[in-house]
Design a protein that fits this description.
Structural class: mainly alpha
Number of strands: 6
Strand order of the largest sheet: 1-2
Largest sheet: 2 strands, antiparallel
Length: 217
């Protein structure tokens, strides 16, 4: 999402929290915290009159991440309720495991779907509906589509045209974890124990130097 915190509409936040079942008094207090912000612009060395926006969550505020998670629940609900008509159930790691249609983390989203014209159109409509309701806007320049090896080139062109996402890639790592894994999981994660040991060794050395410094004093 592009400038995710800045684009959240206050009216959407209020509606989504009420819809999730929170008490009206609680919602009122939350909205008071959000709408208390004011801005002024300095022009020629003088501040203008204060004005109040109608959107945006203040970054750094302790409740902002939680509010954004509640806002993202709207997108999740759309994918679960509107998406299944033309979007696939997603992926699963084994026969008896649950299907995963999408993953959300902060302002990033990974959606698993069938590569088809109707699936791409439905996903595009869902994102547009979410944009109209919440104010969130997908950053298509930083978005990418990852196709399976069985996907044909003509299908890729159809999906890319419908979604307006031309990039075909999958980041090697996300939050320091590999995005794509092969059959050998040991090789993909063997760097983690080494890195943790290195951090612990560095911390131990720092502690030794600190103790020596205290003794010398």
């Amino acid at each position: 999402m592009a400038k995710a915190y800045d684009r959240v509409e206050w009216s959407y936040v209020e509606c989504i929290i009420l819809k999730l079942g929170f008490h009206e008094n609680f919602v009122l207090q939350v909205m008071r915290c959000m709408t208390s912000v004011t801005f002024s612009v300095k022009v020629n060395g003088k501040l203008s009159d204060c004005f109040r926006p109608t959107s945006g969550i203040r970054q750094g505020d302790p409740i902002s991440p939680y509010l954004f998670l509640l806002c993202a629940e709207g997108l999740s609900s759309l994918l679960k309720s509107v998406g299944p008509m033309h979007l696939s159930r997603g992926v699963r790691v084994s026969i008896h495991s649950l299907w995963i249609s999408h993953l959300l983390f902060a302002d990033d989203c990974i959606i698993f779907s069938e590569a088809s014209q109707r699936g791409a159109d439905r996903l595009r409509n869902i994102l547009e509906l979410y944009h109209r309701g919440s104010g969130q806007f997908v950053n298509y320049d930083k978005s990418a589509v990852f196709y399976s090896k069985n996907c044909m080139d003509n299908v890729k062109q159809v999906v890319a045209s419908a979604l307006q996402i031309q990039a075909e890639e999958l980041a090697e790592k996300y939050l320091w974890l590999p995005m794509a894994l092969g059959w050998s999981l040991k090789g993909a994660f063997e760097y983690m124990p080494t890195k943790v040991k290195a951090l612990l060794w560095a911390a131990g050395q720092a502690m030794k130097l600190a103790v020596q410094g205290v003794r010398s004093c």
